[in-house]
Amino acid sequence: MKHTHAPSTTRLARLTRLALSLSCSLPWMLASGASHAGEHERAGRVPPPKPYVQECAACHVAYPPGMLPAASWTRLMNGLGQHFGTDASLDEKDVRLIHQWLMANADTRSRASAPVPQDRITRTAWFERKHRHIEPDTWRLPSVRSASNCMACHTGADRGQFGEHDLRMPQGLSARQRAAWDD
Ligand code: HEC
Ligand code: HEC
Question: What's this model's pTM, rounded to 2 decimal places?
Answer without folding.
Answer: 0.84
